[in-house]
């Protein structure tokens, strides 16, 4: 659930036995983020590998990472058409783009937040992990989680 910039800056000294300590690049917030088995496994994979500037993970530029994500998503045929609407002055502009062309590293952060909320983890806890400072910023994710819960309950109607 970290921003790309925080993963990029993550140092070995930030990793403790059961958590990581991060001072976010964007907001300079200090976060303590507990590790789960999945994150611990990723960190352990690179435990003996030494990276430049004492980084804990192999990182490439955000632009190159986004290029690779788009390429992988295209190969995986994630091509659902997505409509984007915006305005230039009073003129409404609608553009339809395949989903793979819109993916980037931030999609992982959004997915983490939505999955955490759909698992029933309280928004206040997720906010502590992600560094969101107010409920207003979390509201769109909470609305998505509510939709997921409602759709899940509707599955009982199929019995």
Describe this structure in words.
The structure is a single chain. By secondary structure, the protein is an alpha+beta fold. It is 44% helix and 16% strand. It is built from 6 helices and 4 strands. Strands 1-2 form a two-stranded antiparallel sheet. Strands 3-4 form a two-stranded antiparallel sheet. The longest helix is centred in the last third of the chain and has 20 residues, at 135-154. The relative contact order is 0.12.
The termini sit apart by: 35 Å
Count of alpha/pi helices: 6
The description of the largest β-sheet is: 2 strands, antiparallel
Tally the beta strands.
4
Q: How much is the average pLDDT?
A: 92
Which runs of at least 5 residues are low in confidence (pLDDT < 50)? none
Which H/E pattern describes the elements?
HEEHHEEHHH
Helix proportion of residues, in percent? 40-55%
Form type: globular
Strand order of the largest sheet: 1-2
Structural class: alpha+beta
Our Rg estimate from Cα atoms comes to: 19 Å
Q: Helices, strands, pairings?
A:
Layout: H1 4-9, E1 19-23, E2 30-34, H2 37-45, H3 62-75, E3 81-88, E4 91-98, H4 106-118, H5 123-130, H6 135-154
Antiparallel strand pairs: 1-2, 3-4
Q: Quick summary of this structure?
A:
With 159 residues, this protein is an alpha+beta fold.
């Amino acid at each position: 659930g970290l921003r790309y910039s925080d993963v990029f800056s993550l140092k070995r000294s930030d990793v403790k036995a059961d958590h990581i300590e991060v001072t976010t690049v964007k907001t300079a917030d200090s976060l303590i983020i507990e590790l789960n088995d999945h994150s611990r496994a990723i960190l352990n994979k690179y435990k003996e590998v030494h990276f430049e500037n004492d980084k804990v993970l192999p990182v490439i530029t955000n632009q190159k990472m986004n290029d690779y994500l788009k390429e992988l998503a295209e190969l995986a045929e994630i091509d659902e058409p997505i409509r984007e609407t915006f305005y230039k002055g009073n003129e409404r502009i609608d553009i339809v783009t395949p989903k793979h062309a819109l993916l980037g590293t931030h999609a992982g952060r959004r997915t983490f937040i939505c999955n955490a909320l759909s698992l029933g983890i309280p928004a206040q806890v997720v906010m502590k992990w992600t560094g969101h400072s107010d409920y207003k910023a979390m509201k769109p994710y909470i609305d998505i989680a509510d939709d997921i819960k409602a759709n899940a309950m509707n599955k009982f109607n199929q019995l």
